[in-house]
Amino acid sequence: MHVQAETISKKFNRRAVFRDVSFTVEPGEVFGITGRNGSGKSTLLRIVGGLLTPSGGEIRYRLGTVAVAPETLHRSIGYVAPYLTLYEEFSAEENIVLYARIRGLRHTHAEAQALLERVGLPVDRRDPIRAFSSGMKQRMRLVFAILHRPPLLLLDEPISNLDSEGKRIVYGIVDEFRRHGAVIIATNDAEDIAQCDRTISVEAA
Amino acid sequence: MIRQALAVFRKDLASELRTRYAINALLMFVVVTLAVIMFALAGETLTPTALTGMLWVVMFFAAMSGLSRSFVAEEERGTTMTLQLLASPTAVYLGKLLFNLLLVAALNVFIVALFLLVMDQFVVSQFGLFWLVMLLGSLGIASATTIIAAIIARANTKGTLFPVLSFPVLLPLLMAGINATKIAVEDVRWDAVWPDLQLLGSYIVVITTVSFLLFDFVWKD
Questions:
Q1: Could you tell me which of A169, A175, A161 has the C-alpha nearest to residue A142?
Q2: How many C-beta atoms lie closer than 10 Å to residue B212's C-beta?
Q3: How many domains does chain B contain in total?
Q4: B17 touches chain A (CB under 8 A)
Q5: Domain boundaries A2-201, CATH class
Q6: What is the phi/psi pair of residue A153, to 5°?
Q7: Mutation target vs B (from A43, A84, A102, A140; most B CBs, 10 A cutoff)
Q8: Mind listing the pLDDT tens digit of every residue in chain A (205 residues)?
Q9: What is the C-alpha to C-alpha distance for residues B69 and B77, in angstroms, rounded to an integer?
Q10: Closest CB from B10, B87, B221 relative to A52
């Protein structure tokens, strides 16, 4: 997926978070967004994901030669962030079935189990994910993001709460999606930055 | 899109059956309200008009105590963003509308059943018309409260805002609903109720169309 952001600005009420941020992400690329705490990395990633409207500027998305409309952007995006809350009253597999149904995908029990195995989660746990540890919840967020194999993966602090095995899984997914589409990582972690082909530093306005 | 909306509806239904947050609150509200009314009346005889008005007051406040849950629950659990990433705004609105419709219809059947059981003076002469008015009333209440719940979900004072915003929006529906129910109770000719049924039908069409058009702006920041 090709992403072109032009002079993006964001204000919350009168407070400017950042001004005139421009970048382009090409298919096959891992792109990093860095910056100090409070500089607006997560805000910028939310804008790229269509979850926030920019105060100024424009973002264009293209799949091959076809422009992606903002109304259908959610189909092309996988999003992982520590602040993303899943449906904690349901079990891991129930969550997968729920996401698949809402996305209009057919998903078998075996596929759901394969996804859980892939991120290193136990396949036989029937308890609600509210009982999961923070690291296990982060792995569940990875499932949420990759279930529909989106051409654009947006990762905000993707290795937070993860152990070394979890980090290896995240970087394996990044490597796969680099070939499948494009990946944008908002991070300050040196290991994450090492995965990126290019980075941009966001400065607080 | 319809399949997506049905999936959102099934998700809300499964979540409600598991947590029973809205159902329990609504049932308790209805039972307590009717008990208070019975104690307050204490053998007094009321006209069918007064009883009809009382029925709609219970229906209105019961709806106010539970129907905002559809969006408020997403906001309180922090799952709004998850839903934004999963489905189109239209599918979310339609799914939430279906869930609220089921909730308010079941609630109104429960209220009417209890009302008929405990209020001896409340006798319905035209049951067909009565249930038609209840169905249209449920549709109108669900449609109006779904968009209002989406608007107030992010506010700090959502508990107060919901009835305050809902009352003026629901006022035409309440007036037509009360009048049509009174006619169904008093056994007046069918043609007398026609203007109220037209008003109820038009209200549902207008409020649902406006909600569909507005929801995109309400749902995204």
A1: A169
A2: 16
A3: 1
A4: no
A5: alpha beta
A6: -110, 125
A7: A102
A8: 889 999 999 888 888 888 888 999 999 899 999 988 888 899 999 999 999 989 999 999 998 889 988 888 989 999 999 999 999 999 998 999 999 999 988 877 888 888 899 888 887 778 888 888 999 999 999 999 999 999 999 999 988 888 889 899 999 999 999 888 899 999 988 888 988 899 998 876 5
A9: 11
A10: B221
User: B73: which residues sit within 8 A by CB, 6+ positions away?
Assistant: B15, B21, B22
Residue type, B31: V
For chain B, helix, strand, coil in percent to 5 are 85, 0, 15
Query: Do residues A50 and A79 make contact, with C-beta atoms less than 8 angstroms apart?
Result: no
Q: What tokens does B112 get?
A: 């009417």
Best residue of B2, B76, B86, B99 to probe chain A, by most A CBs closer than 10 Å: B86
Q: Identify the domain containing residue B105 by its residue range.
A: 2-219
Q: What is the pLDDT of residue A204?
A: 61
Residues of chain B with C-beta less than 8 angstroms from the C-beta of A72: 88
ipTM tops the 0.85 cut: yes
Asked which of A24-33, B98-107, B147-156 is least confident by mean pLDDT, the reply is B147-156
Span between the terminal Cα atoms of chain B, in Å = 22
Interchain pair B79, A53: CB under 8 A: no
B189 touches chain A (CB under 8 A): no
B20 touches chain A (CB under 8 A): no
Per the structure block, which two tokens stand in for A112? Answer: 């759901």
Closest partner residue to A74 (CB to CB) among B11, B18, B86 is: B86
Helix (H, G, I), strand (E, B) or coil at A50: coil
- Residue B47 at interface with chain A, using a CB cutoff of 8 Å: no
Q: Distance between the two ends of chain A, CA-based, in angstroms?
A: 29
Where along chain A do its domains lie?
2-201
Residue B110 backbone phi and psi in degrees, to 5: -65, -45
* CA-based R_g, chain B, Å: 18
